Amino acid sequence: MGPFGKDAKKDDVSDVTGSISPIIRSHDDTNLTEADLALARNAASDVLTRGQKDVSQPWENPETGARGSVTPLASTYTTEGRTCRDFLASYVRGANEGWLQGEACQQGKGPWEIRNMKPWKRS
């Protein structure tokens, strides 16, 4: 059957073209823009750099109305010689709200690099 037929996979992004890779797929229905995600990533980097416990960092995009906060989870851990930490980022945009889970790592005392951020799936 064709690409839009019954057997097409909802999350198949193999035919995606353009300069922006899909971080959040449309079927996840977060309705967040790349600018929203960039602000959430910046908030994650900021809160992780401070290194305090039980602290969240708010983020907001006045252009889209999206907002939320980022909260580091648990303690740091080491992977591939880098210090890493997981985090949760909340978001609200229009009628959509939810959570993104992410992982950030740093080399030595360098800046925190957000390695991934995707919709949180409750297990």
The count of helical stretches stands at 1
Spell the H/E element sequence: HEEEEEE
SS-based structural class?
mainly beta
Number of strands: 6
Helix fraction bin: 10-25%
Q: Globular, elongated, flat, extended or rod-shaped: what is the shape? A: globular
Which whole number gives the mean pLDDT? 81
Uncertain spans: 1-27
Question: Tell me about the biggest sheet?
Answer: 6 strands, antiparallel
Strand-residue proportion: 35-45%
- What count of structural domains? 1
Q: How many whole angstroms does the radius of gyration measure?
A: 16 Å
Briefly, what is this?
The chain has 123 residues and is mainly beta. Helices cover 14% and strands 37% of the residues. It has one helix at residues 34-50; strands spanning 57-61, 66-72, 77-79, 82-93, 96-106, 113-119.
Topology:
Blueprint: H1 34-50, E1 57-61, E2 66-72, E3 77-79, E4 82-93, E5 96-106, E6 113-119
Antiparallel strand pairs: 1-2, 2-4, 3-4, 4-5, 5-6
